[in-house]
Amino acid sequence: MREADIFLDHLAVERGAAPSTLSAYRRDLARYREFLNARGIADLESVVENDIGEFAVALRAGDAQHSPLAPGSVARALIAVRGLHRFAAAEGMTGADVAHAVKPPVVGQRLPKALPIDQVLRLLESAGAEAGSGGEGAARGLRDRALLELLYSTGARISETIGLDLDDLDPESRAVVLRGKGGKQRIVPIGRPALAAVDAYLVRGRPVLAARAHSGRRAPGAAAAVFLNIRGGRLSRQSAWQVLQRAAEHAGITATVSPHTLRHSFATHLLDGGADVRVVQELLGHASVTTTQVYTLVTIGTLREVWATAHPRAR
User: Which residues pair with 195 in a beta bridge?
Assistant: First the structure.
């Protein structure tokens, strides 16, 4: 289905969609193409509104080749399909947008998980504690502490953090340039503890890891990367996840944690401290304040718990 290929190229080149978004759209549209082929439909011009509704039903039910999808995944797939049909109609590839009336299923709002402040502090103190005291082990410990301190201090996504280059850090103004979804940049302040951890890593840890790289085999761009792996290349998302898991285990934290947990904790703790939701929106790099407002539900939940235990007429 060439329309889908053209649409994906449009998202990549003209809309600057993130690689993760393109990957999800490509996967969803491949499933859509498979569904249409099974119904004997070879092009978008032959699709009618009922076909798209049946596609949603098929996603929810699953089949011999595919497991049933949750409402959130169905909604994501339908957004991709609606975008494809809207684009095809606007470009004159089809006579009409037959998908405009098909609404994605309503997905229940899931509250983000945030760690209490004391657990975050334990986590940060534990980062790199299991690493050796000299050479590569010490360098890795300094890196791990700097990584987690930076994640919590800035609320950055893990992809933004491991994508940092040395020029993105500005110690003088205590700020960092983060590149978010769609290549959008924002400047976020860094707290003194995080800045001290990053400085210690850059001075005593990163040179040790960088020295392990073979100049002829180093991945493009790794020379400028802030966070390096033990081979001198840019740290991967999976390796960053393992850093957090080791720190959580060492800190005795039994709750499920991920790099995004620190982002959630960053936002929740700011709002608990009285920060304006619009400021938090800018710091997180959310395009809409509606996305950020989910964190206000978390703080309201905290207030309700305090009220329920402290107010004499709560029960």
Answer: none
CATH classification at residue 54: 1.10.150.130
For residue 78, tell me if it sits in a domain: yes
Query: Are the CB atoms for 98 and 73 separated by under 8 Å?
Result: no
**Chain segment 258-304, per-residue pLDDT in tens:** 888 899 999 989 988 888 888 888 899 887 777 777 777 666 666 56
Q: Could you say which of 227, 255, 283 is where a domain stops?
A: 255
Do 244 and 124 meet the contact criterion of CB atoms below 8 Å apart?
no
Angle CA 130–241–109, to nearest 5: 135
Please identify every residue annotated as catalytic: 157, 181, 260, 263, 286, 295
The pLDDT value given to residue 278 = 86
Cα 234 off chain centre by: 18
**CATH number assigned to the domain comprising residue 249:** 1.10.443.10
pLDDT tens, residue by residue, 35-67? 999 999 988 999 999 899 889 888 888 887 888
pLDDT of residue 61: 85
What is the pTM for the complete model shown?
0.63
Sign of CA dihedral 90, 94, 95, 99: negative
Domain of 193, in residue numbers: 117-255
Question: Which of 118, 128, 119 shows the shortest CA–CA distance to 244?
Answer: 128
Structure confidence at residue 109 as a pLDDT band (50, 70, 90): low
One-letter amino acid at 62 equals G
The rounded distance, in Å, linking the Cα atoms of 47 and 45 is: 6
User: Over the stretch 163-176, which tens digit does the pLDDT of each residue have?
Assistant: 999 999 999 999 99
- Indicate the angle between helix axes 135-154 and 117-126, nearest 10 degrees: 160
Residue 240 CA from chain centroid, whole number: 13
Backbone phi, psi, residue 166, to 5°: -55, -35
